[in-house]
Structure formats: C-alpha cells, structure tokens
Amino acid sequence: MMPIHVVAISGRQDAVEILELMLQKGIDVNSKTMGDMDTVLHLVVERCDVRHVFPLVLKIMEFGPDLTLRNRSLRTPYDLAIAKGYYELASVLDGSMTSMEAYTFYRQSIGTVYGTKLIRAVLESNEELIVNFTKFGADADMLNEYGNGAIHYAITHCSISPLRTLPLLLNAGADANLRDAEGDTALNLAIKSEKLHENGELPQIVELLLDRGALSTYKDLDGNDAFALAQSRNYNDIIALLKKKRTQHVQRRQAQSPLESRRTHEKLRTVEARKEEENRKPEAESTDHIRQSQQIPRSVNPQEYLIRAVLEGTADDVQDALGDTNAKVKLYKNGLTIMHHIILRDDGISDTERQRIIKLLIAAGADINAQTIKDKNTPLHLAASVNQICSIEVLLEHKARYQLTNQSQYTPLKVAEYNKHEEARKMLEEHAKKEKQRMVEASRKSGSCAVA
Fold this sequence. Notes:
The protein is mostly helical and about 450 residues long. The protein has helices at about 5-10, 15-25, 40-45, 50-60, 75-85, 85-95, 100-125, 125-135, 150-155, 160-170, 185-190, 195-200, 200-210, 225-230, 235-255, 270-280, 280-295, 300-310, 315-320, 340-345, 350-365, 380-385, 390-395, 410-420, 420-445, and strands spanning about 330-335, 335.
C-alpha cells in the first residue's frame, strides 16, 4: 500500500485533512494497491465505517477519480457500496452527481441513518448514544413509522429527565414545534404528562421549550393547544408562563406560511384534515398556491428546487423544475423518493393539484413502485395509510404494483384495512378484482386460440 491508502483506512479523525494534503501534492487519486488492485476509493468504501466513509469519499471525489476502475475482483467502488448496503453512497458513486450535490445528499443521508438511531437511543434512555448520534449529524427532526420524533419520546418514554435530553436535541437542530401523528408538540406532551407535573419539573421544561421557540398555539387532534391543556388541568403556574408569550405566539402563527413547521409535510394526514381541505374555496386555494410559488427562490440548485417545488409549490412550479435536466426524480431524500414526499405533503394542497404533480413526476420517469429505504413502503402503501384516494386513483391508473408488500409483509390493501380506511380499501379491492378478472379473460382467450 502507498501512504494514501494507509491514511484512508487508518480511522484517524484527521484522515480527510491528510488525504486532501496528499492529493494536493500530486499523488495519483487512481493509484492502486499491489495485491488487490484497490484504489483509495475502493478501500474507503470497503473498509471504513459508514459514518466515516461519506466525508472521505466526498473529499476524494473533488480530485476526479475514475469511477469505472475495477479491482482484482473486478468490482468498482459503486459495486462495493451496493454489496455493503450503502445505497445512498452508491448514488454518489454512480457518477450522476457533482461534488456539491453529493455533499448535500450526504448531509441528508447521514441525517437519516443517525436520525433513526437517535430515536432508538431516546427510547432506550441511553444518554451516551444520544450525545454521540447528535454529534454524528443525526436529523433530530426525523419521524418514525408511528409519526413520532426523538423530541416527543424525550417527553413521553425516556427515563432521563427532559431537562437533560431536550437541550441536546434542540442544540442538534430539533424543531421545538415538531408535531407528532396526533398533532402534539413537545410542549403539549409535557403538559399532558402527569409524571412531569408530579415530580415538579413541568414548569422548568415549559420555560425551556418556550425559550427555544415553542409555540403554545398548536392544537392536537382534539382541538386543544398548550394553553387549553393547562387550563383544563388548572395548572395556574403553567398558564402564567404561557400568558407571558401568548400574544406573540398567536401573531407568529398568523404570520406563518402554509407549512406549519419544516417537517409538517412528513406527517400523516387525518381524514378530518382531508375533508376540510376538499371543502376549501377554489379562490382561497389558488391564492395560497401563488404565495407558495413565490416562496421558492430559483437561485437554489436544480435538485433542491425540484424538491422544494414538490413539497411547497404548485404543479407549474414542478413542471418548471423538471425542465432542468440536472433535476433527478429518482433520488432519495431522508429515505424517501420524491414520489413518497408528494403523497405525504400536508399543507392544504388540493386533490387536483396533487394528481397533476404526481402525473408530471411519472411522466418525467419517477418510479411509482419505489420503496422507502427503511420500511419498504411504496407510494401506494403511503397513500393507503392516509386514505388519499386521489393519489391511489392516479397510481393505479399508471399500473402501480398493488401486490407489493412492505417490510411488515403488508400490501397497500392490507395497510388500508389495518388503518380502517374504507374508501381506500374499497378502491384497492375493486382494482384487484378487475385485474384478476382481466387475467382470467386473457388466459381464456389465449387458451381458445386455434391455429389454422
């Protein structure tokens, strides 16, 4: 091995900096080891821990390595990444991204990897791991399959005092107003917690959250915000704390954009929210979309512009974004493809507009059967989970594979049944019957053909 190879797999904390110095001095980035014919890129992908491999790969990519070079086993770095299950890394090594795009993708991918681990660490009340995962770049706002984040479990499940865990999460970028599947923020959950009231920590926790930007105006599914929750429990000390900033909170909520928090689009939509959305006046809806469109700066890179257009904008914004060939519809963001994100978007978008966007993405080559990295859910699974009839309709029209199973071995129909979504269940069941009938007819016609 040459020194560059030794440094790359040494595990040193300053390996990236040393590697950069060596490459700047003219060492060949494509130089191979004598035995296995590995380049430095091969070695990094094959031997380094996932949390170290991305920064090293990104630094090597800056010096233009030949991504097609194969080692003695005839494998490219891309092949090795696929073999190890580093699918996000493989997306960087297939040559489709610039260094800047790869860096942005790295931040998102590593955030997903350690965001999942962070939630588990909070559930297991492991403070050491909580500290480590926030340092590794965990996405502190990530929601799990139940629609809950680390900041929610810090209140409801973690045995460590929230006075210790909340600062760690908030310093790591957690949104103090992140809402769970029930619409609750950490502030709401804290007020609902009898344990925190009984042990006397509640006033300090409420004050901590308020100081870090928590609003008292977010309502749960029962229509109660933090102020109402405190009043119903006669928590006069908490009411006094909330009153100090109540006017300011109301004004902030009124001034907010349709996206209540930066992760609202990832929350599951309730049937009630969907019905309310359908009853909105077209004029008001149109105005909202104009405002959303104006909020997306065209100066961002093509990929980010496409993502933001799908998450915040109109079908026209998406069509505009798809006009740039550098905008890719098959990349993953936070473990989901762009098709998953449009299904989970929850900002008052109309059914018609959502269908237009889905059709545009499909026409641009988006995979309608793509599965989430963690739970293997397709867009059809997600649409079934939130009773999103408009999306189920257009996905089935475009031949989405309705029999695919997720990690729990559930088909979209099973997901709809489990969540008691009758509309979705009926639509999927009817489609399955029609497909079965069509296959029987095709088989019958094929069997009855005679050769003259």
